[in-house]
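<context>
A single protein, sequence plus fold
<sample>
Here is the protein in question:
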Amino acid sequence: MLAKRLLSQVFDDDALTRGLGDVEARVLVEWLVERAEDLAAAGVGENVARDEITKLRRRARSISRFVTLWCHCHEPGAAGQLATAERLHWPLPDAEVDPCELMQSILAWEDQQPGRFCEDEQTSKGSSSLRPAA
């Protein structure tokens, strides 16, 4: 039952996929669904799970906006400013990149960060590189 309530928060949030193409939108929603299911399976309390999915949705909206700015609007400067303002610590791409590949790279980087549940976003650091897949 908890998973259903968490998933409804994801599915009801239109801002998650605004501006994205279908493929990268699907990748982002699937990533959030996996996180919601992981939270439900982890046995955390309902309030903790709801708070964590709210943080993850906010982060996902930032990721979505970053990909939209970088790939669809061709505004890497604005995307970089967003990344700084939102404390998005993944490495910026070096050049134009396919939106789906960028989304997948960012989400893979996010998954590699320690403390997935109840993480303080200000302490996330990383050093991996985002490069287009060959």
User: Anything to note?
Assistant: Helices lie at 2-11, 22-42, 46-72, 76-85, 99-112. Residues 55 and 94 are 28 Å apart (CA to CA). Residues 117-134 have pLDDT under 50 and may be disordered.
